[in-house]
Amino acid sequence: MEDILLLAPEIILAVTALVVLVAGLYLKTEHKVALGFISVAGIIMAIALTMSIMLAKTSASMFYDTMVIDPLSQVFKLVFLSVALLVSIASVKYVSEDRNTEEFFALLLLAIIGMMVVSSSNDLITLFLGFELAGLATYALVGFEKKNIKVLEASMKYFIIGAVSSAFLLFGMSYVYGMTGTTNIPGIAANAHLLVDNPIGIVAIVMLIAGFGYKMSLVPFHMWAPDTYQGAPSVISALLAGASKKMGFIAAFKVIIVALIALNAEWQTIFAVLAVITMTLGNVVALSQDSVKRMLAYSSVAQAGYISMAFVVLTPTALAGGILYILSHAFMKAGAFIAVAIVGFMILVGNKDARDTDHIDNFRGLSKRMPITAFALMVFLLALAGIPATAGFVSKFVLFSSTIEAGLVWLAVIAILNSAISLFYYARVIKYMYFMPTEGGRITEPAPYAIAMILALVAVLVIGIWPEPFIYWASEAANVLLI
Amino acid sequence: MIGLEHYLILSAIIFSIGLYGLMTLNNGIRLMMCIELMLNAAIINLVAFSAYSHDITGQVFALFVIALAAAEAAIGLAIMLAIYRIRDDIELNEINILRW
Questions:
Q1: Does B67 touch chain A (CB under 8 A)?
Q2: What DSSP assignment string belongs to A46-59?
Q3: N or C: at which end does chain B have fewer Cβ atoms within 10 angstroms?
Q4: pLDDT > 80? residue A440
């Protein structure tokens, strides 16, 4: 019975999803705004419960050792839940006049449950199930505007590449099961030498890296990410970049680090190459983008490169830095996409047939028309570039300094050079917003969007100014991995 | 006598057929059939390993995957149907608004 209580956050979310889905059948479209409030309430309850479990430092394993509760899983659950909170607050406005509101919120909650199951999983079966639950729900969410061919194209690309990568993942898992005789992750770690001594084991690990790399959008598995982030509704891009991508990281942390520690240094070289290619390609291609969402998508690819430096260094500080980076990236990127969503929404209010609402020309003189949005977007972009007093600086600092401590100076130098490149395209958007003339008067942002954006802004600044508790919990989480 | 390796070779061949089809075809439905082939190859692996090592876990995993593959097909068909309603075909190569 005690076990069930530890899963209370997931259960609450599942119940909320079902309540929202059923209640939507009986409500008129104009009353469906209440569904958004119900799901926000459910997510807040889940956050409170997850936090109380985390602060009590509970460690437990349940359901025949297929799920575990530890600081690592709780920290990641909080990341997913916070992104879900921001996205669902913003979506109250986005889906307010849609007659499919209930499906939107139910799918959103189910996606988050899938991610939480992944972060708790201790067995390949639960891990794969959570992965797919989150995947299936987000395929449908990306294609939510089903009359818009651009959205459908994004959804179709995401679905095809996602399904192929889960086939790769499953094929790799089947070999891992065959070689080690178990699907339990600690059991695999104990038998990791069986994987290394066998050519099939190597194939299996490569397939696992491909399967997880797709969710993490590491180059060369990133091709879906720019298309999907650009085409999807902006609030869903926030969910994908803020939460879904982090699911790839927690899964890779759980499976690959366990195997990597048992293996030798050669795999670290592979991850070093992947990290360098990912951050360089992401940053260089982002330079030439005219669509702000696509620019953010490439910057998200680049950030995945920074985070995967944690796989190369593999010291406790580096892993803590990676986890801290994941936490701050979730707020920075989700906030930036929500700010872009506001701009897009306001343009569509003015002109229903407007296309390419995320084109950089639409950000000209934004500081005059929407000062709050412009300021928040500026902070998010500066945080992504790693300017001090923001979350981006703290996490980059911890991650890069741990890389230098571990003697990988060349890797840190490449990462710092990349951050310098990235400042260029972030500054370009800021230049458009603050130093370009504009036409049109002052516009007030819709309240739900503004609340979500300001919450993200506060989180980014709090992590930047008072990072100690976040660093503490990130190191607690990292310790779980390295025992 | 049919050994474990026969099953593994069979599943590797099926997986490769699926992967080859994915790279060469551009009809949405055919792509989904290729994905299904790849998933089923993995299921053959799981069941073969499970049978030859007398461990039931692999078969449990296979059952879950069969259900997931069905759900995935449902979502995929829904997306293809939505595209078909707008464009009247599902030749995916011609859907290229989003690039670079």
A1: no
A2: HHHHHHHHHHTT--
A3: N
A4: no
- DSSP letter at A444 equals P
Q: What residue spans define the domains of chain A?
A: 2-481
Instruction: Tell me the C-alpha distance between A256 and A319, whole Å.
Output: 13
Highest mean pLDDT (candidates A194-208, A246-260, A448-462): A448-462
Span B4-94 CATH architecture: Orthogonal Bundle (1.10)
Contacts B60 to A, Cβ<8 Å: 125
Distance from CA of A378 to the nearest CA of B (A): 24
> Are the CB atoms for A40 and A92 separated by under 8 Å?
yes
Distance from CA of B12 to the nearest CA of A (A): 9
Give me B54's structure tokens.
């007398």
Counting every residue written for chain A, the total comes to 483
Contacts of residue A204, Cβ cutoff 8 Å, sequence gap at least 6: A172, A173, A175, A176, A179, A195
Q: Provide ipTM, 2 decimals.
A: 0.95
DSSP bridge partners of A68 = A61
| Cβ pair A256, A273 in contact under 8 A | no
Say whether pLDDT at A172 is over 60: yes
What tokens were used for A172? Answer: 């790799």
Whether the Cβ atoms of residue A395 and residue A325 lie closer than 8 Å to each other:
yes
Bridge partners, residue A291, by sequence: A359
Single out the residue of A480, A471, A398 nearest to residue A72, CA to CA. A480
- Segment among A53-62, A80-89, A187-196, A274-283 with least mean pLDDT: A187-196
List the end-to-end C-alpha distance of chain A, in Å, as a whole number.
28
Residue A86 · residue A34 · CB < 8 Å: no
Would you tell me how many other CB atoms lie within 10 Å of the CB of residue A63? 14
Residue A129 near residue B64 (C-beta atoms within 8 A):
yes
User: Distance between CA A366 and CA A374 in Å, rounded?
Assistant: 6
- pLDDT single digits (tens) A227-237: 999 999 999 99
Give ∠ CA A440-A442-A447 in degrees, rounded to 5.
130
What residues of chain B lie within 8 A of the CB of A227, using their CB?
A: 98-99
Separation of alpha carbons A173 and B17, rounded Å: 19
In angstroms, rounded to a whole number, what is the distance separating the alpha carbons of residues A81 and A46?
A: 8
Q: What is the DSSP string of A4-25?
A: HHHTHHHHHHHHHHHHHHHHHH
For residues A89 and A86, what is the distance between their CA atoms, to the nearest angstrom?
5
Chain A contact set for B64 (CB, 8 A) = 125, 128-129
Q: CA-based angle A279:A280:A286, to the nearest 5?
A: 90
Give this prediction's pTM: 0.94
% of chain A surpassing 90 pLDDT: 61
What residues of A are in the B interface, CB distance below 8 Å?
124-125, 128-129, 132, 136, 139-140, 143, 146-147, 149-150, 152-157, 159-160, 163-164, 166-168, 170-171, 173-175, 177-178, 181-183, 226-227, 230-231
| Contact between chains at B98 and A171 (C-beta distance less than 8 A) | no
